[in-house]
Amino acid sequence: MKNKLFTFLFLFTSLIVVSQENLLNKNKWSIEKANQWYDNHNWIIGANFVPSSAINQLEMWQAETFDPETIDRELGFAEGLGFNTMRVYLHSLAYKADPIGLKKRMNTYLAIADKHAIKTMFVFFDDVWQKSPKIGKQQEPVLGTHNSGWVQDPDDPAHKEKKNFIALEIYVKDILKTFASDKRILLWDLYNEPGNEGKRMTTFPLLKEIFTWAREINPSQPLTAGLWAWDFQELNAFQALNSDILTYHNYSDEKHHQHIINLLKSHGRPMICTEYMARTNNSYFANILPILNSENVGAINWGLVDGKSNTKYAWNTPIKDGAEPVEWFHDVFRKDGTPYSQDEIDLIKKLIAKTNK
């Protein structure tokens, strides 16, 4: 009897795995379709965006602190520079608190971005920074500290508890269905840096689920989840093999960055670097952006405007009195729209003009 039960459970589990694999493969874009999509766009260039008035994703999206005036002004800075894409994080708790309101605010954001000729790359889940997000008023920034209020989504350990997956599935599918044909959205980035903050493979089940949910909805926009930790072999293989467009993060110098591009070329798919530019890590616009331009790799740097996220300060090296760092880590503009570096602005505009001839 035990053997029969074991055999039944094994076969049942195998059918579930096979079914999930079939769903993952069913609507995945071919290499040809992915390259055609990419060729129909100008060079994709922009920044990761949270308005300077928001410390994190929740402060950006909750009704009480949603700030369309600041969003409009700061996306105007991006438009003036020639940026055409923003990568923007969502948060499941904002949906849990107010599903209809979140979708309305997303639509408002998209209308503002579209006015500035900017497309949006929305991010669903995120394994980085504080592990216990809470709905409601968010903390104030810690003086001189990089991303002191950024929060994971879902929290830890909720990310690995399958009882939470039902609510997360409802959230993901509802957002994807609502905006599945919206031409203002460039692509869907399903999971930022899976396995970060020590989570490693505990993230893998949720990563597989969100790809499965997204393939079931089959939006008109491509799907991706960016590679970021080159020793996470199983996660990297899954992300690369299930993404329509390859995306990745690299905050290293030009030699290492070029090496990563050379390796990822073997997949034959278009590439977008969705995080780079950390000045004190020797990842500058000056040494990285020309490579991305010449290789026709999309370029999305971290940070547009210096604000409550404090990302002008470097990781794990706070300046406790909040003084201006000698060299900014991230970000392009001050709050009033003046650039951190006019030389950087001139280079960005030059490369965009050259590409769009």
Which key terms come to mind for this protein?
357 residues, alpha/beta, TIM Barrel, 8-stranded parallel β-sheet, 8 strands, 42% helix, globular, hydrolase, xylan degradation, signal, glycosidase, polysaccharide degradation
Any overview of this molecule?
With 357 residues, the protein is α/β, with parallel strands linked by helices. Helix 11 (285-294) links the parallel strand 7 and strand 8 (298-302). Mean pLDDT is 93; it is low at 4-17. The protein has helices at 2-26, 31-39, 57-61, 68-81, 92-97, 99-115, 165-178, 204-217, 233-242, 254-264, 285-294, 342-355, and strands at residues 45-48, 85-89, 119-126, 185-192, 223-224, 246-249, 271-275, 298-302. It has twelve helices and eight strands. The protein has an eight-stranded parallel beta sheet with strand order 5-4-3-2-1-8-7-6. The protein has one domain: TIM Barrel. The longest helix is centred in the first third of the chain and has 25 residues, at 2-26. The N and C termini lie far apart (73 Å). This is 1,4-beta-xylanase. Keywords: Carbohydrate metabolism, Glycosidase, Hydrolase, Polysaccharide degradation, Signal, Xylan degradation. Residues 1-19 form the signal peptide. InterPro entries: GH. GO terms for molecular function: hydrolase activity, acting on glycosyl bonds.
